[in-house]
Description:
The chain has 13 helices and 10 strands.
Amino acid sequence: MPLPTLPEIEAAAAVIRPHCPPTPQYAWPLLAARAGREVWVKHENHTPIGAFKLRGGLYYLHCLRAAGVACAGLVSATRGNHGQSLALAGRIFARPVTIVVPHGNSREKNAAMRALGARLIEAGNDFEDARQVADELARTEGLRFVSPFEPELVCGVATYGLEFFRHSPPLAAVYVGVGMGSGACGLIAARDALGLATDIVGVVAAGAPAYALSFSAGEIVCTPRAETLADGLACRTPAPAAVALLRAGAARLVQVSEAEITHAMRAYYTDTHNLAEGAGAAGLAGLLQERARYEGRPVGVVLSGGNVDAATFAAILSAA
């Protein structure tokens, strides 16, 4: 799968901008003190669904309409933000959307998807189980299955990278969480399109290491479990195309513990007064783990989403 080019990313940005204006990016002084260097935050928690995924959903639905694709509707599996993206894009482009989530999924993300108009089905114990159910629904109901990693999704997501790199100083590295890979691959695409030398560092949860293991092994490594409070990172079966792009364009993938993730969530709140869900805080967790790297040089982190259940966040804050 080729990375999108600069004209393709700019065309996607023109499609997305009326529905999702460019998100802020700030260098917060308290984060700089914590990390020992200037840290720029790309605030993808400030999109209309509170997560970066909206960009991909909007561009995917636009491309379906432009190609004249007819179908009874769309179906996908998610832990939340990908589903919200498709639900809102489906509303905008008048396409019915069915979303499958595992049992025990975030109650507030589920409520948001329903409010956006999606038919929500709970099935299975984790994302991979939900994906299999979604795939079966595609066959039995004539729906179009939307994988969390598609070329159009990556191109749409790459627009946040274009904004980030164009409106921040030269960054030595950008740290970003890796769930199914569209966020990190979108950054790689934007960096390469602009001819920059910034390191892209992917961050996974230690309890869901499939992407890091695959990156190191040079082949797909699946895991029997993916257990982490960062539900957006809870992948046990990587997308081969995503692994190939990460191996070609990322500097490395690092693993962070649950304690490091919750520490980063609290740091975002105390240092910037922003909510970060577990996956949204993973980039900062990775940066803080590698605090000794890139000394004296500005770095970036992606706050990719802020959709954390209130009770979960309250417990994390109270545990400090």
